[in-house]
Fold each of these.
Amino acid sequence: MKKRVRRRVRAKTGPYTLAIDIGGTHLKAVVLDASGAEATAHVQEATPHPSPPRQVLALLDAMAKALPAFDRISVGFPGVVKRGIVLTAPNLGTEAWHDFPLAPTLARRWRTPTRVLNDAEVQGFGVIEGKGLECVLTLGTGFGSALYRNGELAPHLELGQHPVRKSRTYDEYVGEAALERKGVEKWNRRVQRVVGIVHTLLNYDHLYLGGGNARQIRFELPPNVTLVSNEAGLTGGIHLWDAAMDRYFS
């Protein structure tokens, strides 16, 4: 028999959204109110390694039990996701996650409507202004990317797995392992180079740099580049339920 998640009952002023950010280093979750504000402090657990679905889901069960009631679920996942199905998970183990039906599994497990999107795309929804061509790059365990035109999400580009320099991918070039191996100073030079490369590639109007390692940036940013809080990886989850997003999940 499947375990049911016990949720504390409270007055309804929602809908309330359980926002989950699955990362290579941490799993985070929070409940957002109808306006997208955090209704409570987020809960956090270290990501297990290895990270097969069974272990990750068990941790998410425990985290959900520690939070107030919710009516729907938004998940940011570090890889390619199509219609709730995981295709790649470079920093969790693609072999274990490939073709895993994450959205349907959570929806059945918690008997709650669920939407899943790439984690950088979720973070972007928490920071973009909806004007012109906006790009989000996340610097964490790996390298995430998202692109929007006038607020509308563009087709996903898994830029982190694309070669950037001497056959090394963006993940390998500016990910967590590169930061630890090269040190902050050399890593900053690499990130600065990447910002220039992505501008040449996309000619974006504005770039947002997020992820846990964005706080390590030491160089002066161009006027059209902004550092953003990693908390947007949770708060952006409210926008997965915007009417304009319905077609992405149909």
Note: The helical segments are 53-65, 94-97, 102-110, 119-125, 170-174, 176-202, 232-235.
Amino acid sequence: MLAFAAEHKGDIEVTVARPGLILEPWNIPKRLFSFALKWTMGVPSIWLAQISTAMLDQVLYGFEKDPLTNEDLVRLAEESTSKA
């Protein structure tokens, strides 16, 4: 995708999202695993709804930066929900 976008400057815009572990509210084992990863290895996590909100916001209103880190995605989701 990045190469395609480079070949078509002005026609298409892409960015890279680098989320942490993506969590769903109903997946308790994965939530426990993410808690352990965060405390032992510092691996961040993001809720499925947060990453969805953040990426939709970026598609609609333009990409803020490249790449989008987990912290950026969480912040963008919070800002987007506070706008609504």
Note: The two ends are 31 Å apart (CA to CA).
Amino acid sequence: MLQKNQDIFEILLSAVSEAVLVVDENQMIMETNASAKDIFGYERKELIGKHLNILIPKKYHSNHSSHFNSFVKKGEKKQMAFGRCIYGVRKDNTIFPMEAGLNPFSIYGKKFVMAIFVDISERKKQELEIKKLNAQLEKKIRQRTQKLKNTVDKLQLVNLELDSEIKRRIEAEQEIKTSLKKEQELNELKTKFLSLVSHEFKTPLSGILTSAMLLGKYKLEEQQEKRNKHVKTIIDKVYYLDNILNDFLSVEKLEKGKVTYNSNTFKLSKVVNEVVYNTNMLLKEGQKINYPENIDEFSLYHDEKIIELILSNVIFNAVKYSSENTVVDIEIMQNEKNTIFIVKDEGIGIPTKDQSNIFDRYFRAENVLSTQGTGIGLNIVKNHLEEIGGTITFKSEEHVGTTFTITIPNRSIV
């Protein structure tokens, strides 16, 4: 029976695509599987009885031993987590990134640890490619922003001239349309990068593909409602992917302190119109956004895209976390020093115990865990506001709604 159990164990290990090692509490390798050779390059007999350090770069030996001993002492399972990277060393001395899951167990009073390793070299290569593409994209965006500013300046001069300058005004307006179109193309380019990013993007992309395929099957006039449903699914998920890519780009720049604010004077109504237009496409049945009154004369001197990012996150959340037949109110006030935005919804609200953490990166309140999201939007908003001298506060009651108040100085301080 013991031999039979051993055979079953070996069969199960060989079926696992990841590298599996069993080590004792002294970090001596007791067992491994065939996949370990694919990752580390060692035959099974070369690993059995060897210290685990044979698979760990020398510079990490001391830290690894202390972490391992602490883990064995606690005896808690440690799940493999995306993004939590350690390093291994192959037989040919090449060092590579990997992820590990640790599972402690005991047999006949002896402690063992089953470690599962995954080579993430290709993922890291893709991440570097994403950073490179992001840098190229940011450079193009800065160029487009400068072109937009130059065009707007030209329009301001044209508005002061007489009828003889009408032709110049039309040409300048055409330049704005062309520049905006190019900027939209750049935003669409962002979504193409999502294929390089794991986990968070797979489900939306799958939903888009499914809805697109089903659209082709509904050809009868009475099936229009079904077509509309799938079109809305596609719009929702594409807008979600665009927002989340913007969030990832902002996180990258904020973490490295590479945020560059390109400030210029712009009409606030332009940004509000853009944000409300995009959010209207995501409204549920019977939902409504009350547009702010008397803002045509309001202007700000800031980075226009950052202000749009801040408002998009807050207004999109108000719609996302509210049910059908609800209203989202937007109120904007401006005095000599500041502009104040108030966004009020009738949504699910934020549980009291979660309110102190709502601006923490990756934190999500317990009542939205089943709703898709990353937990970085409000963190990005707060960090950008702090950079430009603004603030954000909120009041919320669960099952009643939430009101966010954003205060931004009229002129940039950065």
Note: Residues 1-6, 188-199 have pLDDT under 50 and may be disordered.
